[in-house]
Design brief:
Layout: E1 9-13, H1 14-21, E2 27-38, H2 40-43, H3 51-55, H4 62-73, E3 80-91, H5 93-97, H6 105-116, E4 124-128, H7 130-137, H8 141-153, E5 157-161, E6 169-173, E7 190-194, H9 195-203, H10 207-219, E8 231-235, H11 236-242, H12 249-257, E9 263-267, E10 273-278, H13 284-319, H14 325-333, H15 356-368, H16 371-385, H17 394-414
Antiparallel strand pairs: 1-7, 2-3, 4-6, 5-6, 8-10, 9-10
């Protein structure tokens, strides 16, 4: 029996999921911003001989403008005050994200799972078992098939038989290719979710709580500063803009009263504002950045160890001295088998000597797949590209190898499914 394998992280497109949760009604938002501005009265600017140059700044020669600006900038008497600016912003999410019908619980959760099932660059996910999906969602196979029909009817996916096995299906996430595009080319951005967040979302039984928490998780994704709390504060008017019309404040309070490990909920005494605080373990963006940094450091140390061992053996080859057994056995153990302990080849090892960007690419791959999976590819790449070793992007090459390897494993498994 093949178990459903999901990735540790997934890109969740904001456009399809905001539509799936519910588009906000057209409204205006008042945005308050603060800035530090010079307090002319407190600074004594009116008594300053430089004030006339500032007052008639645009009419002064360029040299006087430059001198006047520098004097003000470095003035020891300058006093600044906080000024609050109020701007009004019109919001029309239908124009921003498009319009599609709101999804129910199983369809919404299925759409999330498909993003964790390692879609390729075109959004294609193969080898999905309706039975395994039903087991994960604790529903029937018929419910999964009905939800897929709804997702396809509403334009979120395209679904068909896998072709390798009658019991399996393949799905194309229709907007997946646009996730990374700039706004002028139709991209609306994506959030990074981790598997822990997916697990907590799947466990939610109240549909409106699922919608609110999913929307909050999308909004809070940009909070990458680990020193800031993962908290969002909303009022009932904001929540009702994307929830069904029947969702009065009492229904919203009842939905958010169900205990969840994803968000903790607190209500103000006036019952106008709701505070949602996210579990840090479920914040995909922060954990992803942290894991990428850790894996980049690990893969850099590993490659550096390979390079050091190669340099030592190269020196032994040049001086015709027997190489150190530890260096040779280390390379052999890691899949780099060109040289042997008993015979010194005249050709030299070619160390990797990767750039900081290449280490970062490999760190991302270690986070997306596993450190061991990437490490196992290093020896393969070295052995097959050692003679010329002119690789434009080692990260892209290893990503292709890992993707092809996964596809081959799936094909061989489906023959016995």
């Amino acid at each position: 029996m093949i178990s459903l394998e999901l990735s540790k992280y997934a890109r969740i497109g904001k456009a399809p999921f905001i539509k799936a949760i519910g588009i906000q009604k057209n409204h205006k938002e008042v945005i308050y911003t603060e800035s530090q501005e010079l307090d002319y009265a407190a600074s004594g600017c009116f008594a300053c001989d430089n004030y006339k140059n500032i007052d008639f700044y645009e009419f002064m020669p360029e040299e006087i403008q430059k001198e006047a600006k520098n004097r003000c900038k470095n003035c020891p008497c300058a006093v600044y005050k906080t000024v609050v600016h109020e701007t009004c912003k019109s919001v029309n999410e239908k124009n921003i994200f498009g319009n599609a019908k709101r999804l129910k619980s199983i369809a919404l959760k299925l759409l999330l799972i498909y993003h964790f099932a390692s879609p390729d660059e075109h959004g294609l996910v193969r080898g999905l078992s309706p039975r395994e999906l039903a087991g994960m969602l604790d529903c029937t196979v018929r419910s999964v098939k009905n939800a897929n029909s709804v997702l396809q009817e509403y334009g979120y996916i395209m679904c068909s038989s896998d072709g390798l096995s009658k019991k399996r299906i393949q799905v194309i996430l229709t907007e997946y290719e646009t996730y990374s595009l700039p706004a002028d080319k139709g991209g609306r951005g994506y959030a990074t979710f981790n598997y822990e967040c997916l697990e907590k979302l799947i466990q939610i039984t109240d549909l409106n709580q699922l919608r609110i928490f999913l929307r909050a998780a999308l909004d809070i994704d940009t909070n990458r500063n680990p020193e800031k709390e993962l908290t969002v504060t909303q009022d009932y008017d904001f929540l009702r803009r994307f929830l069904p019309n029947y969702c009065k404040p009492g229904i919203i309070r009842h939905a958010l009263s169900s205990v969840s490990e994803l968000f903790s909920v607190a209500f103000d005494g006036d019952e106008e504002h709701i505070h949602l605080k996210m579990n840090p373990l479920c914040h995909g963006r922060r954990n992803y950045d942290k894991n990428v940094a850790q894996n980049t450091s690990l893969i850099k140390d590993y490659i550096s160890s390979l390079d050091k061992a190669m340099d030592c053996i190269n020196q032994s080859i040049l001086t015709k001295i027997r190489p150190d057994e530890a260096d040779a056995s280390f390379l052999a153990q890691e899949g780099i088998l060109t040289k042997t302990l008993t015979k010194l080849d005249k050709s030299l090892f070619v160390p990797f000597h990767l750039s900081a960007k290449e280490y970062k690419d490999l760190g991302v791959l270690c986070t997306t797949y596993t450190f061991d999976a990437v490490k196992n590819c290093i020896g393969y790449v070295y052995e097959n590209y050692n003679s010329q070793f002119k690789v434009t992007s080692i990260g892209a090459l290893i990503r292709t190898i890992l993707h092809d390897k996964n596809n081959r494993q799936e094909s061989s498994l489906f023959q016995t499914a």
